[in-house]
Design brief:
The structure is a homodimer of 609-residue chains. Chain A has 609 residues and is of the alpha+beta class. Chain A has 22 helices and 22 strands. Chain A has 3 domains: 296 residues, Beta-lactamase, CATH 3.40.710.10; 141 residues, Transcription Regulator spoIIAA (2-Layer Sandwich); 141 residues, Jelly Rolls. Chain A has a 5-stranded antiparallel β-sheet with strand order 3-2-8-7-6. Chain A has a 5-stranded mixed β-sheet with strand order 10-11-12-13-14, sandwiched between helices. In chain A, α2 packs antiparallel against α10, α14 runs parallel beside α15 and α15 crosses α16. Chains A and B meet through α1, α10, α11, α14 and α15 of A and α1, α10, α11, α14 and α15 of B.
């Protein structure tokens, strides 16, 4: 199948191939050797899907596009305060090679002009020139997701002709922004500009910025997430020099261009764009590159300020314990109690990237349902990430509800380790010491149900083995019939963890549980094992395979030492011949139980629909 | 319950109340009457939740915060081209009252400096001063969601002292940017600055921008969505004058401040912030206002460039027809065929705001599953919005699949009218003429299943009434038993649309369908009516209430003229006494059918879990 997205890029590429305005840069002689026809476009999503067309594999030197990345490395290695002391973040309104030092401090106005970039390069740590260069290459390679190297020919060409940049270096030394001899730092700056990349690399590097510093192809963190906003902010304000206002107005994405013909643009949280075509306009930007970004922004509606609000935020699904129950099989009295009082259990399934704005919807929902809420289950199964603010908001909600005597339960909170860290930091103790945490929504729901039932005076489950007369399946049987039925049963005993029924087995007995507790699972021990139901004494299991003679559809395991009495299919058949009235009553009771379970399953399906 | 979000704002408000730096503006004498202690904070989400603390109801004049809004109105009334001819979008790097005209054209550099704002005000249409003022007030009131008015005292004070702005007006007339006498436009500019607002109004206006021009409280469009990005772009580049770079670096939200002490900031797609406190710093920005925005950005992690990517995009849930089936009740042969070949039906439930970046995930999924896909159901039930790009991407996917002989079905596409418009525009004909559209996922799934079954050689449903011996429920009965059973049935006939069973009824017959087709519904005719199942001849319905004596849980309606044969509970009881072997066989068959349905329901639940 040809991807319609690739088709779109192919058409755009063909359309702009005819655009031959502009000139290849020659002020660094080696750059002049570029083929002016080279033209590549690469779009990489924050999810890691790559769409590329044209010459996306040709290597060229990164030039000024290196500036935001070295800025990111400088922030990571020195911290924000030290970096801001050396270089500002204010646009200069001037061209790329302007000196633009701040009156008084001598601080370059921003890291995107050469003066600021040289000041930034001075912050790359290392004992020797080689170790500083290694730090650079390691950082850039993490962004690109492959090992990058310096193009020595271009570097030598830059170094031979870079008089203006040497002058800037000395000016910075004069103002004390550089504290040592400027030459090694200026050389490092030439080296950063001479790192060899492809158009595809630019796309991946952009997508890494769109993905808060995590390379979406390698899943590795290229720069600490907290510094990505700094890098994008200076690209936003100063990335396109004296054209920044119009660029954001028209294209609406932080971007950076280089004189070798590359442009890198970032739509935060969504995607990265790399374009390469060597002919430049009078601002020093790739002519086709600009047109590609404008076309992508307009035709794909990518402008970062063209966004709609969302009402649902982090809430994927919300339901109460009156509508959906745990897999614990309930007696009819218990089921009725839960239907009446289950609304006091509120279950919220969360989703996506939890931030203040998306988590606010959860706080709002809790406030709205507050009077009706004794139990709140927050299920993190579908959450992709949580940030510190959202974690603190969850903390505030949880502790406040707890202080009011309400219960907050967390499920799958292992997906968001930051949440536990925030709780530990705030509480001074582990998360689990104060809050109830489950691996799945189902047992959390059961926990709440047990308490709702207890509060409504549900009888405490009898620890004595049930009498036959109390068993739902045997309802309506006379004393004599019960005795006859009892004679058809076999006693079976199981130790804790024993498998009573294994999925796929052909056997067809029906089990009446007399002592202990058993759970039904789907999935194997190793794969995703999920509890379907838990049974307590007096309940019946295994009846479905006995009835329809199909293989066992689930595994049943003893949660404790278990005593069952078992009705084989043969005994059941025999009952039909010898005592048809007993078999009719059993079948009626069985059908009723199945019917009740089916009604419940249909009700739950209506919630998820 | 006290909201933790409000608690946070309350603490922030208390903490910053002690900050008494700065001076109340006095250059317009009337502004000097403000109480320097006034302090309000209001956060409004794009979903319309309002959080406010302090003096959020005190009225003050909007001053420069009017500039982006008049810019929006000018764009709406004149179009982008005409507006850009009069005023640029490039930051000036200068203070708010700078004249900053572009060399050559005389065009003010941007609409946020006074010169640009006066040029913008000249574009507000109207025959008379009054009609132009009405246009202004109407536009601003839509943003605030309540009728706003001009503070005449402040307006007079501005008008009396506004010599510098009159000078700017004449300068603009000199350069031909204003084409008529400047005074009426300068007066209109004084009026726009004198519109009375509260801190809460600022919050709502900001949230309207965050919500792409739709006021989240009134749900009314205040400005065409396409111009919101223009407004936010100039706020981003020039909203905070010579402090724009640092503002975006630190706060990361497009914003605008005014000399009366207001600041309005927007986190696109998420929320709006209004702050009011009259003491100003040397840049003319509210001292506390700046601190509030910095604190909100840092503590709530609101920086617009601090975003993570999302892998799931617009895909809420994806499953195949092998896992989830339609509500059409199937024979066991049909069910087996669907289990084997249903993977050729792919159902994608979509969600959220569909844009290029979120919809790309759908294109990627389709490409990945392409070889396994004969039927694609796209369900728009959970979609909040779609933009043009996403609609075109869906169009490309759909037409390409169709050209390959595959089927694309749309459900609930009425939620996204733009989709139908894009298809109509591209196809030159209505959506429904080329594609299959359903109101719900369920019948769409059934449509696909029918075709999968037909392609796998499933027998064409017999149009003749079934014989008793072919009915699943009667499996295993001897010829003599069938005759006896037949004598216990009553014939009943229904016209098309007749209600055969009504939800809540106490009756307990079991129906065997002989001719025609019936459907099961939950919900009433007026409320949300949802089909649970459709039955064809030979199938049985109503058995659950007969078995468990509970009221009918759904409504069953004749889809066509229908003939049933009915077994009453009395007749069923009579059978048990007179012919127990028949009743045992019936109950066994019934239990098997229930058991099969329950297995299927549990399988479906596992998909949604």
């Amino acid at each position: 199948m040809t991807s319609p997205i690739l088709d779109f890029l192919r058409r755009l590429h063909a359309e702009l191939t005819d655009l031959r305005d502009g000139e290849v840069a020659t002020y660094i002689p080696e750059l002049g050797r570029a083929d002016p026809e080279w033209f590549g476009i690469c779009v990489v999503t924050a999810g890691g899907h790559v769409y590329e067309i044209g010459q996306t594999d040709i290597e060229f030197t990164i030039q000024s596009i290196s500036k935001p990345f070295v800025y990111g490395l400088a922030l990571e290695d020195n911290g924000r305060e030290d970096v801001l002391a050396k270089v500002g973040v204010e646009p200069s309104g001037d061209a790329f090679n302007s000196i633009s030092l701040e009156p008084g401090t001598g601080r370059p106005l921003n890291p995107m002009i050469n003066a600021g970039a040289i000041a930034t390069a001075s912050l790359v740590p290392g004992e020797t020139a080689l170790s500083r260069q290694r730090r650079l290459l390691h950082g850039f390679s993490s962004f690109a997701g492959r090992p990058l190297a310096i193009d020595e020919t271009v570097y030598n060409s830059e170094s031979e002709t870079g008089h203006r940049n040497r002058a800037i270096g000395h000016m910075l030394r004069n103002f004390g922004i550089l504290t040592e001899a400027p030459d090694p730092t200026v050389e490092l700056y030439f080296q950063q500009c001479s790192i060899s990349v492809t158009c595809r690399d630019l796309g991946v590097m952009a997508a890494t910025l769109a993905n808060r510093g995590v390379n979406p192809l390698t899943a590795k963190q290229a720069v600490r997430g907290e510094y990505v906003a700094d890098m994008l902010s200076v690209m936003n304000s100063c990335g396109m020099y004296d054209w920044a206002g119009e660029w954001i107005y028209k294209v609406g994405m932080p971007a950076k261009s280089g004189v070798s013909g590359g442009i890198l643009a970032v739509l935060p949280g969504q995607l990265g764009i790399g374009v390469f075509s060597p002919r430049l306009d009078s601002h020093g930007n790739s002519v086709r590159g600009i047109k590609v970004c404008e076309a992508l922004s307009q035709r794909l509606d990518l402008h970062m300020f063209n966004r709609r609000g969302s009402r649902q935020g982090a809430i994927r699904l919300h339901f109460t314990g009156a509508k959906v129950n745990s897999r614990r099989v309930r007696s009819s009295t218990e089921a009725a109690t839960l239907q009446r009082h289950g609304h006091r259990i509120q279950v919220v399934q969360l989703q996506g990237n939890m931030t203040f704005a998306t988590t606010e919807a959860v706080a709002h929902l809790v406030a709205e349902r507050h009077d009706d809420l004794d139990y709140l289950v927050l299920d993190f199964k579908h959450v992709l990430s949580i940030n510190d603010t959202a974690a603190r908001l969850v903390y505030e909600l949880a502790t406040q509800l707890q202080a009011e005597g309400r219960h907050v339960l967390f499920t799958r909170s292992d997906r968001v380790p930051l949440l536990a860290r925030v709780f530990r930091h705030k509480l001074g103790t582990d998360f689990e010491e104060r809050f109830i945490s489950f691996e799945e929504e189902d047992p959390a729901l059961e926990w709440c149900e047990e308490r709702v039932l207890a509060a409504r005076g549900a009888p405490i489950p009898d620890q004595k083995p049930p009498r036959l007369v109390d068993i739902d399946l045997l309802r309506g049987l006379t004393g004599e019939e019960l005795d006859i039925f009892g004679d058809h049963l076999e006693r079976q005993q199981f130790a804790e963890h024993d498998l009573i029924i294994q999925v796929g087995e052909e056997a067809g007995e029906l089990f009446i549980l007399f002592e202990g507790r058993v759970s039904v699972f789907v999935g194997s021990e190793n794969v995703q094992r999920r509890r379907l139901a838990t049974f307590s004494p007096g309940m019946v299991f295994g009846e479905m395979s006995m009835i329809d003679r199909s293989p066992r559809s689930a595994t049943i395991q003893a949660d404790s030492p278990v005593v069952c009495r078992v009705l084989t299919r043969e005994a059941f058949d025999r009952l039909g011949v010898e005592h048809p009235s007993i078999k009719i009553k059993l079948l009626e009771n069985l059908s009723q139980a199945l019917s009740r379970k089916l009604r419940k399953a249909n009700l739950e399906l209506s919630v998820f629909d």
